[in-house]
Design goal:
The protein starts with about 25 loop residues before the first helix and ends with a strand. β4, α6 and β5 form a beta-alpha-beta unit. Strands 1-2-3-4-5-6-7-8 form an 8-stranded parallel beta barrel, surrounded by 9 helices. The protein is α/β, with parallel strands linked by helices. The longest helix is centred in the last third of the chain and has 20 residues.
Length: about 300
């Protein structure tokens, strides 16, 4: 499996600036005090918005990948190519605008047997992802906050974890819906999905120590809507808000489309369009006969 927290690049893990190497900043964050807060993203614009808000870690979930690319639910519909494609877009944004911000990405169950799990990890690493999580559900998996989930045997889950290539700062997160096996298998971080109570989360943190614990908060999901200061006090090391961008985008899209259908004109002012252009790197936006022309483009 992968190396333990802090073992790679040990001289710069505990102090000093964050590394521009994709996986190392997360290792540094895990070794240092405080909780790692990761905003969920689903595309390039949501990644830019998260960076603008000041988030220092991003999270790409299987649910948002499936929703944003295919408009479908998180029911094992998206493929490895779908996931890696979104990861490359996210990493490209960070390479250009925030080289020390790591991305944690979902891999569902690894898209196949041990050889496929190893291939998945290699493709994620090449795409610039800092960490991935792999889970103990069957191949026809479901979102962790849905009912009707089925899990594989202890042996099969351990095989998935053990088939992951090691020897780098790449962070491996074992996600489990049924039992706390990930730490015993050698994962760097344990992701216990669907934790229903504060007491269960606290006892899980104690049982898995010193392995860091990740919690996923989805408004309306199985886990209570903890804040990140609250989960930090409970002892968790990483909190992800996996659907924050996808839910916001759905409601914004819906409102815009309904307004356009009703009023037959775009439901925003030219200032809003100019704001989008500025965010994407166009410093001046001029209108001539209704056609936008680009001038003085720059990075932002």
């Amino acid at each position: 499996c992968s190396t333990s927290v802090g073992s790679g690049a040990s001289g710069r893990i505990l102090d000093g600036p964050l590394s521009p190497i994709p996986s190392t900043p997360l290792r540094q964050m895990l070794a240092r005090p405080g909780i790692v807060v990761a905003s969920g993203i689903c595309d390039g614009i949501s990644a830019r918005a998260a960076l603008e808000a000041g988030f220092e870690c991003l999270y790409q979930s299987g649910a948002t990948t499936t929703a944003s690319r295919m408009g479908q639910p998180n029911l094992a519909i998206a493929t490895l190519n779908d996931f890696v494609g979104v990861c490359r877009f996210s990493s490209w944004i960070l390479f250009n605008y925030a080289t020390t911000v790591p991305v944690i990405a979902d891999t569902d169950v690894g898209f196949g047997g041990p050889a496929m799990v190893a291939r998945t990890v290699r493709q994620y690493a090449r795409a610039g992802i800092a960490a991935l999580h792999i889970e103990d559900q069957v191949q026809t998996k479901r979102c962790g906050h849905l009912l009707g989930k089925q899990v594989v045997s202890r042996e099969e889950f351990l095989t998935r974890i053990h088939s992951i290539p090691g020897g780098s700062d790449f962070v491996i997160i074992g996600r489990t819906d049924s039992a706390q096996l990930a730490a015993a298998a050698g994962a760097d971080v344990c992701f216990i999905e669907g934790v229903r109570t504060k007491e269960l989360l606290e006892s899980t943190v104690v049982a898995l120590a010193p392995t860091p614990v990740l919690v996923n908060v989805i408004s309306g999901g199985l886990t209570p809507s903890f804040t990140y200061p609250e989960t930090g006090q409970m002892g968790t090391k990483i909190i992800i808000f996996s659907l924050v961008s996808c839910v916001a985008i759905l409601h914004a899209y819906r409102a815009a489309m309904r307004s356009l259908k009703k009023t037959v004109s775009p439901p925003w002012t030219k200032d809003r369009t100019a704001e989008l252009c500025l965010k994407l790197g166009i410093s001046t936006w001029q209108w001539q006969g209704g056609v936008g022309q680009r001038h003085e483009g720059h990075d932002c």
